[in-house]
C-alpha cells in the first residue's frame, strides 16, 4: 500500500515538473519575441497630401505632386493653342494635363489617309522654372512621314533637314507604351545616325530632340527590348552616346549627358547626380561636375557618383552619360524583375588617361518591403554584349561603392530579398494557448497510461497517439517555428563589409537575379518537415478516432475488426510520412528551400513572389486538401454520432432533463474537440473578407492553440477516475461522504 501511494506521488511530481518545464519554454520564447520586437527601429509617421504614401518616415508622392508633403503641383493644366500647320492651314490644338518633364500628345490627329493616320499631330512639353510648371511651344509632326521614311532620309539629309527629322522622330516616339521592337530599332538607328553627324552638338534643337527620343525609348515596355536582334542596335547607340557626351550638356527625364574641358591642373574629376530635396522625396536630379575633388562625397543625397583619377597633363575633355534604367543594356546573365532604381553611369576621357575609377550608388527601393542582400560592381563588356566584373572591386558602407581600372558604362547589380511581416497579437495568443495545451496533453497522456488498468472502458492507445502527435507538434511549434533569419529582417546589415577591406575583388561575383532567397537555413527546413509530419499525423489520428467512435457507438454489438489497433497505427503514422516524402521530393532543391517552406516562419510555402496564394505551392496540395478531406470525414461521422447516439430521444430517462441536456452538450463538445472540427475555421478565414478574416484568425488561433487543454479538461479532469486519484494524492481536494440520514433527506428534498 505505501508503494502505491508513493507511485501516485511520483506521477503527480512528474506532471508538475513537465508542466513547469514546458511553461518555462513558452515564457522564454515570449521574452525573446518581446526583446526582438522592442529593438526594432520605429519610423515616425508622416502626413501626406494628394494621395501621397508615407514610407520610411517620408512621403512618396504620385507623379502629379511633389514636396515634402506632396503639396507642390507637378503638372501643367490642360491647354489649347493655335499653331500654323502650314502656310495655309491654322489649327487649334488641345492638350490634356501634362506631367513636368514629359511630353503630352495633342487630341488632334493626322488625317486617316496620310502615312501617320490617327497619330497625334503635335506634342508639347511641360517644364519647370522654380516652383511653377510652364508649357513649351508645341512641336508639329509631318503627317506624311513615318519612322521608316525618316530612316531612309537621315543618312543623306542636309544639315538643314536634320532638325526636322529629329523632331519628327521625337513626336513619333512620344507614346512609349505603344512602341514595338521594330519601332525601337528604327528610332535608335535614326538617333545614332544623327549623333554621328559632324558638329551635331552645335545644332541644339536637333541634339535635344535626339536625346528626348532616347529618353522616350527608355520608357517603352520591357518586353519590347527582349529581342536578340535589338542588342546590336542598342550597343551601337550607347557607344555613340559616349562619344557625343564629350561635347554636349543635355538633360532629359531618363538620360542625361554632361561634358567639361579639363584644365592642366586637373588631377581628378567628379560627376555626381544629386537628389534635389527642395521639391520633395525622390524627385528631380541635379547634375554637377567638380574638379580636383579628393574622394567621393559621403551621404545619401547623391544618386550616382563617378570619380576619375587623371594621370597626365594634356588638354582634353571629359564626358558623362547617366541612364535612369538598364533597358539599353539587355543582359542574358542577370535577370531583373523589380521596379527599383537601376541607374547606369558612363565616364569617358578624350586626350587624357586614368589610373582608376571610383563609383558610388545610392539606390532607391522600397526599404519597408525589400532588404538589400548583395551587390556586384559591373561594366558593360561590348565584346560579349553583357555585364562583366573584370577589373572591378566592390565595397559597402552607407553607399554601394565600386572601384575599376578602366572607363566605360558602369552599373551596380543588386540582389534583394523580401522583408516579411508578422501578426504580433496572434503570436502571443499562440504561445500562451500552446503552452496551456502542452501542459494539458502531458497530463492526459500520463493519466491514460497510468490508469489504463483501472478503467473498465479504455481508449488509451487511440487517445494517447492523438495527444502524443499533438504534443510533439506543439513542442516543435514553440521551439522551432521561428526562422532565425527573420530576427535580422529589420535592417540592411553591413557586418560582412565591416570585416573586409573597403574594396573587395574576391566577393565581386556576377549576380544572376535581383530577387534571391534568404540565406539557407537547414534547421528551419527540418522544423518545417517535422511540423508538416506531426500536424498531418494529428489530423490522421483525429480521423482514426472518428472511425473508432463510429465502431464503438454505432456498431456496439459487434467487436472491433481484427488487428484494428495495428492497422490504425500503420495508417496514423505511415500515411503522413508518405505525404511529406512526396512533397519534399517534388519541391525541395538545394539552395531553393523556399519552394517547400516559407521564410518568415518554418512552415509550408503558400505564396508566390507577389505575395498571392499559389495553387502550385505545397501548402495547398500537401496540407489543405488532405486536411479538408479528413475534416469532411470527421464532420460526417460527428453528425451521424450526434443524431444517432448523443441527441437521440430516450423515453426511459431516469435523470432530470436539465442534467441530460448538459451532458449532451458536453458530449457534443468533447467529440468536436477530439475530432478537430474547429480547424474548419481556418478555411473560412481563407475565403472571407479582410475584416471578417481578422475575426476568424483570432477564433482559429484561440480554439486550436488550446485544443490540447480542451482535451485535458473534457477527457481527464472530468473523469471520475481522475477526480478519485487527485483526492487520494491531495486529500484537500477530497469531498466528505454524507451520512446516510443526510443523504435520505437530500433525496426527499430533491424529489419534492
Detailed description of the structure:
With 752 residues, this protein is of the alpha+beta class. It folds into three domains: 2-39 and 420-483 and 521-718, Rhodopsin 7-helix transmembrane proteins (Rhopdopsin 7-helix transmembrane proteins, Up-down Bundle); 74-140, no CATH class; 147-418, Chondroitinase Ac, Chain A, domain 3, CATH 2.60.220. It contains 18 helices and 25 strands. Helix 3 (159-172) packs parallel to helix 5 and helix 13 (657-674) packs across helix 16. It is elongated, with a radius of gyration of 37 Å. The two termini are 44 Å apart. It comes from Gavia stellata (Red-throated diver). InterPro entries: ADGR_G7 (IPR053066), GAIN_B (IPR057244), GAIN_dom_sf (IPR046338), GPCR_2-like_7TM (IPR017981), GPCR_2_secretin-like (IPR000832), GPR128_7tmB2 (IPR047938), GPR128_GAIN_subdom_A (IPR053985), GPR128_GAIN_subdom_B (IPR053986). Pfam families: 7tm_2 (PF00002), GPR128_GAIN_subdom_B (PF22261), GPR128_GAIN_subdomA (PF22259), GPR128_N (PF22257), GPS (PF01825).
Main attributes of the structure:
752 residues, Chondroitinase Ac, Chain A, domain 3, GPCR_2-like_7TM, disordered C terminus, alpha+beta, 7-stranded antiparallel beta sheet, 6-stranded antiparallel beta sheet
